[in-house]
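Summary of Year 1 activities. Much of the first year was spent building the evaluation harness for sequence design. The harness presents a backbone, in tokenized form, and records the residue chosen at every position. We chose the following record to illustrate the format because it has been used consistently in internal testing since the harness was completed.
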């Protein structure tokens, strides 16, 4: 029976009392994205498996260990998206959106799926808010995207996040770096985990973000990409830092930051919180100048980031940022009898049509219990409907905060203009 009453491991429900806070946060994120000219992108929850293999990368943990991949009834291999960037690139290419002119600026809210070992802040189904920019290759765009991340946290009232920044170069300078890494890790191959031994030949950089503690210890002494950057990549990285400094954005250059996905080039960054445990990265992103071409499009510089919404909500909670609960009723219609109930059913709909949140009892509660419920539910006002009210068409509107009562004429039968006047008072 537990299977019937327990969500699958690594997933979670949001009840209305939590979802209201999420909605508030989502509204801030949406507004911040739209302020900067991003439009919403919605892509399917599953894509062809090959899309993620090619973009996220065959040697990443995500592709090697974490994807929810299955064969559909038509014999195709499909995968629940582990992240949002690959689908955004696929959509850009499928709709030839670059023909509308560059830059193309997308934001998205997506559920993502990774078969990871669940722990605080690490789920198998989680949610991301992300942005992707296609077209801008200049370091000013890197600064813009990073500053946007900072502005979002400020707008939400989140404090104390630190920005970690690195450059992982371009394919040209990375080739040299791979040689150096290969030499370093080959000498220590026996101490690496089996997956990393496999990565040694194909993509030694992936060893740098292996979650195995032994690999992590060895990786700590590995050569650093920043020592291998070519002149163009170095200049790009320096300019990004200059722009950030000029904008007053504090950051730490962190040569150990390589990110877990293969498509990145040049700038990579993460916003890290001390309010989370081991899963401390709230937002991660970077440039991926080669991906559009790799997927069959024209060479198009691109960059973006994604933040984990569960982790963001954990930080907000840890920092005591107040978030709203579900909207209480503006007015609760308490009914003395069946005839009054008929009136309440109609009146509630008329009030809702005017944007007033109106509710009534349909659980068969006594009038006393209805009043108690109204108080507990946080309704702002209560109207009791009984024989007198139905006969005279005049009701008493009780303000639940002050306890004061004011009459309101609704007509008998209910009069549209009079109900509209009451709605105006209640809104
Ligand atoms: P990512 O670093 O894999 O990057 O994920 C971004 C964020 O999603 C993380 O910083 C974290 O907050 C959240 N996240 C990742 N995995 C989990 C998990 N298992 N449970 C809960 N939260 C998680 C990307 O996905 C890139 N697509 C970001 C990007 C966009 N880069 C360029 N554009």
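For this record, the design step produced the sequence shown next.
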């Amino acid at each position: 029976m537990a299977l019937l009453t327990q969500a699958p491991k690594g997933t979670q429900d949001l009840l209305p009392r939590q979802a209201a806070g999420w909605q508030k946060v989502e509204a801030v994120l949406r507004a911040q994205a739209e302020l900067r000219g991003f439009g919403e992108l919605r892509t399917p929850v599953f894509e062809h498996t090959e899309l993620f293999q090619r973009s996220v990368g065959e040697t990443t943990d995500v592709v090697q260990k974490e994807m929810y991949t299955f064969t559909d009834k038509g014999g195709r291999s499909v995968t629940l998206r582990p992240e949002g960037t690959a689908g955004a690139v696929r959509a850009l290419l499928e709709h030839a959106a670059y023909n509308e002119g560059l830059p193309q600026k997308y934001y998205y809210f997506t559920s993502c799926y990774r078969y990871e070992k669940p722990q605080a802040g690490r789920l198998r189904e989680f949610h991301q808010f992300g942005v992707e920019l296609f077209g801008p290759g200049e370091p000013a765009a890197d600064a813009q995207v990073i500053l946007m991340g900072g502005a979002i946290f400020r707008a939400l009232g989140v404090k104390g996040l630190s920005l970690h920044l690195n450059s992982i170069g371009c394919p040209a300078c990375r080739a040299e770096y791979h040689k150096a890494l290969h030499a370093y890790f080959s000498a220590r191959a026996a101490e690496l985990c089996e997956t990393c031994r496999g990565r040694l030949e194909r993509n030694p950089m992936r060893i740098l973000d292996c979650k195995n503690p032994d690999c992590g210890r060895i990786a700590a002494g590995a050569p650093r990409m920043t020592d291998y950057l070519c002149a163009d990549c170095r200049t790009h990285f320096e300019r990004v830092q200059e722009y950030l400094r000029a904008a007053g954005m504090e950051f730490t250059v962190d040569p150990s930051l390589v990110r877990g996905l293969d498509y990145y080039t040049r700038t990579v960054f993460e916003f890290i919180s001390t309010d989370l445990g081991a899963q401390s990265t709230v937002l991660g992103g970077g440039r991926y100048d080669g991906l559009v071409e790799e997927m069959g499009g024209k060479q198009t510089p691109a960059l973006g980031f994604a933040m984990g919404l569960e982790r963001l909500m954990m930080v907000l909670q840890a920092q005591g940022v107040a978030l709203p609960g579900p909207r209480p009723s503006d007015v609760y219609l308490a009914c003395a009898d069946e005839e009054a109930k008929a009136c309440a059913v109609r009146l509630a709909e008329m009030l809702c049509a005017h944007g007033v949140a109106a509710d009534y009892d349909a659980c068969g509660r006594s009038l006393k219990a209805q009043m108690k419920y109204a108080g507990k539910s946080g309704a702002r006002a209560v109207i009791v409907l009984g024989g007198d009210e139905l006969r005279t068409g005049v009701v008493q509107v009780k303000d639940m905060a002050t306890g004061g009562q004011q009459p309101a004429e609704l007509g008998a039968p209910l009069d549209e203009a009079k109900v509209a006047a009451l709605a105006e008072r209640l809104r």
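DSSP finds 16 helices and 16 strands in the chain. Quantitative recovery figures across the full test set are reported in Table 2.
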